[in-house]
Each structure stands twice: as structure tokens, then as C-alpha cells.
Here is the input.
Amino acid sequence: MNTLARLVTALLIAAGIAVAGFAVSQGLERFRMSDRSVTVKGLAEKDVESDFAVWTLSFRRAGSEFGGVQQALAGDRDKVLAFLKERGFTDTEVEARPLQVQDLFTREYAQGNQPFRFNGTGQVLVRSPRVAEVESAARAVDPLIQAGVQLGGENEGRSGPRFQLRGFNDVKAPLLAEATRNAREQADKFAAEAGAELGPLKNANQGVIRITGDDGNDFDDGSSRRKRLRVVSTFEYELK
Here is the structure.
């Protein structure tokens, strides 16, 4: 290959490298520009009152005679119903469930040293949107105990009312709106500090609204009348 041919070849190679380099640089610039975005999290919290209460008053009796246990349970049920009526609860708010009496000697793994043959339980259920009245009544059961009613039946680990938030959807929308506003404010601030302009929304994840009690627990077991709602939403905005 003569000198002229080598020179032409070298020029062609150099031109190809330059064109390729320009194309690569343009591609990187487009990638960088298209990836200019900011991801922010919006936080919103709100304390709300429960709007419904469920209270199960369980009572128990034990004895050596079936009829005696059943009669004692019936008397306890009447006392519980009278107590609730005195506290102002209506028939639509109160449900008396059937009494149950069990013969312990007939169980498959019965033990002969049982002090009593018969064990009985009863329940009266209160369902009411008047949460304050239910909470007040639950704190005033001393007369029932003094009257001999053994509150807290077998396998009844939760004796107090359970408070619910049935109007959850009424507070959900404002909470999410607050989280969205909070995220937007953070995104605007970031864009201003970066010398950019906030563009349209690219992605959004509203997150999960957590409901906890106001007693410091990480979950809501229903024992707290006041609930704390918390949501963390994630948003991605373009930057211009």
C-alpha cells in the first residue's frame, strides 16, 4: 500500500471514530436527560375516634348438678341484661346468646378428679355506635361482680370492648390527599435547590394506610378507642 492509500485509510478511520463518538455522546445525553427525575415520599398521619364498639360480656358457672348450673347461668344473664338496660342500651344493641352447659365426665379425655361435673358459660353481646357509652359501661361492672356474676368465661381472653373504625373510607381520601401534598412540597423544594423545574408525575404508589391504637403498639388490637392512621406514599416526578 502506497503512502496516499495509507493516508486515505487513516482519514476514513478517524472520521468513523469521530462519528461514532458523537453518536455515543448524544445517546448518553439523551439518557441523562430522560432519567432526570426525583422520587419523594409523602407522609400523613391523623388521629381519629372509633365509630363502633363490640363488647362481649362472658360469664361462667360450675357445679355438680346440671339444673343448678343452668339456673345460675340464667340468673347471671338476667343480671347482665338488667345492668345494660340501666346503662341505657336498647334491645337492638344487645344480644343474649344461648347458654351452654358441658358435662365434663363425658369428654373423651375426662379426668375422674374433676371438682365439678358440669361447666357452663353464657354471653351477652353489645354492638353499638355509641362508643363512649360502651367504654363507660365497661368501666362500671363492679355491681355485677359484687352480685356474684363471674365475668370472663372460659377461653375468653379479651374481656373489654373492641373498638372499630367502620367509617374508614370517609377519612381515607383526605389522608391520601395530605400525603400527596406533602410529597409535592418536597419535590418542589428539591427541584428549586437543584436549579431545575418540576415536571409531570411519572409514577405514584399511594402506599398502605396503617391503623394503630394510641397506646404505642405497632398494631391495632381493637382495645383503643382512639386510632392513629398513617400512610407513606411514593411519587416520582420528572425534572426539566
Q: What stands out?
A: Strands lie at 37-49, 52-63, 94-96, 100-103, 118-128, 162-164, 198-205, 210-213, 226-239. The chain has five helices and nine strands. The first helix runs from residue 3 to 34. Helices lie at 3-34, 66-86, 131-138, 142-146, 168-193.
